[in-house]
Every structure is written in structure tokens, then in C-alpha cells.
What does this fold into?
Amino acid sequence: MALKPVDTFCNSSIKLPSSLFTLHKYELFPYERFAYNILHLGIEALNKVDLPESITVDYTKLSLDSDPWLINASITNNRSRSGDLLGFEVNLPEFLPVIIHLYIHIVANQFFDYKNLISYNQKEESLKTSIQSLFDVLNKSVQCYKKNTNSIGLAVREAYSTIGYGFNDLNDSYNHFDLLTKLIGNHEIAHAYLGQLSDWKRGPEIDCSAYELLADLLAIEWFYIHMIKNTPQTPEYFNMRGVKNFSEALCRNVDLVFESHQSLLLLMGIAGAQRMRGKITLQGSGVHPNGLLRHLLQHCHLYTLIHSNYSSDLLDEKSINFIDKKYDLIMKILLENGFISTQDVNTLINGETYQILERAIQIIEEKKLQPLKHIQMFLQSYLDTMKKKTIS
Ligand SMILES: [Zn+2]
It folds into this structure.
């Protein structure tokens, strides 16, 4: 994305359990790609706001209450003894890249194919069954991990060999994996970019929740810039995407962006199931607001960015109508199958949500986050619209 390489004397690193280096290339690949995506965007973003361009992506440091197979990610800061900010550390559970990779192979590749969506809609296919298959593979792998004194290498091998996954399957999941991990990585880096980690003290809970929403909105905007705004206008690129011209390439990228963003919502539900003894849920945890609220806020912002920056000459109406139809169909299936609950929908219009949104707007003002001025305007208009809906 950078026009020219960032000039810095800082160092960054990726910390992996040694056992992983004895695996096959396709087994190690998800770890490398996930870390690369975080560092690629992260170094450039930190440079822009004069923060130390030093990031450690650590797959080995688990918090005491965390398990290696949990779907979560976090970012903290590194300070010197005298308190100077030295850099940042993104902590990822040991097994996370494999879980995302398996999720794509077992659930997402099938579900997000439009032809299959119709079968899911007509209840010929069951999303819950494919998610159960994912959990079955993970459970086998976790048992192997525990039986072999927490050997991550053996657990990864067990997971891939259970589903018969090999080198030739990598192509089918590469793109989706790349996009999903970019979305997750962007969010973590956005916390640092916003200055949330530069303060000594952690703010009150409502501030942390507000920062989650701000990090989400910034993350989706970076994703829009990378995947849509920077769509190359070259024959080589059109060839790679399998399209004839720029307009088609743009539509293809909008489709991919929407798809991976909805895939993240589904992954959030699966993460909820890990916390709630198998029940898929988008309910937030700790300072994290509800998953549906987070998704819809990002979707509205993304939709506004796309439609206010591209005319219908470039975004072919027929393709865009199809993308919208596909998006709506996915939401309908998620609603009808209980992945999105009435409680999730009610969260969109409750007083607590309004307070978090109001606090997010105030933070942009208080911290003088000028580049987020348009996000502030977006949040204000979203809030006004939702409040009007509640009253009427
Ligand atoms: Zn976060």
C-alpha cells in the first residue's frame, strides 16, 4: 500500500513455537501470512502518527485465563523501565491461524458460494452441521495437544490430516484467509494508531467500548482503501482477477470485501460459541460491544465510502444489485438459523449502545483525532437515525 518504503531504525519480530518450523509449508503458511498482514499495515500506520514502528507478533504468550484454541486477538504496548513507549505487541493464541484456516476450508468456502447459499436458504444444507464438523476436527486436535504435553506441532498435524488437507488445497483458502486476517489485524493496529495504548492508564469501561467501535471503523476504512480504492488499473491485475476491465475488477473487489466482512461476523459467532459452551452468539464480552452492532456500523461506513466515491459508470448496477442481494440473503440465513438473535437486533437501539456511540464521538473531539472527523460525522448521523427510529 505504501508509495515508498517506511524509513525507520526500529525492529519488529514474529515469535512462534519452535515446533511449528518442523511442519509442512502449508501448515506453517497461515502463521506467516497472518503476521505479515499485521506488520505490513502496522508499520506504515504507526509511522504516519509518529509512534514507534516496532511490533512483535507473538503466538506464544497466552494470558492465564486463555486457551490456545480460542478465537481472539489483543494488542498491548511495550515500555522501557523509565516508561518510554518502545513499541507494540500483538498477542495471538497459538492455534488461531489454524482455526481460521480450517473454518474457511470446512465452513466458509462452501457457505459463501452463491449457488450453495440458495441450498442453505432452502434448508437443504445446514450451517450448524458444517460448524459442528469444524468443532469435531478442533476437538480431535485439542485432545492430541493435551495428550502430547501441549505439543502445538502435533496438534496442527492432527487437524490437517483429519480433513485430508494437503498442499494442493492451499489455493482454495488463500484469498479468504488473507482478507479475514487483514480485517482482524487492521483492528488491532487501529487501537495503537488511535493513541489508546499511548496513555499510561486504561480508561473507564465505556471508553474501552467506544475505542472498540472506533478501531472497527478505522479498520474497515483501511480495508476499503487497500481492497477497493487501490484497485490497480493494469491488464496484469485484470488477468489475475479473471475480469475484462477496471469496472469489473472494482465490482469483484466489492464482492470480496463484503464476503470476507460477513465471514468475520460468522467467525465472531463461532468465537461466542467457544465462550458460551457451544451456543453461537454475537453477544459482546467484557468491553467488546455486540458483534451485530459492530458489523452493521462497519457495513454502513463501508457502504457509504463505496457509494459516495464511485459513480454508477464505474460500479455496474447489475453487479452491485447482485452483491446487495447476496449480502441480504446471507443476513436472512443467519437470522433464520438463530446466528443473529432478537437480542442482538435489540442491542442496536438500546440506551447503553447510544451511550457508547456518544462517547466515541466525544473521544474523537477530546483527543483531537482530526483524520477521524468524517467517522465522527458518520457516527452522529447513525445515532440520530437510530434514535428517531426508537421514538417513532
Ligand atoms: Zn479491539
User: Anything to note?
Assistant: The first strand starts at residue 13 and ends at 15.
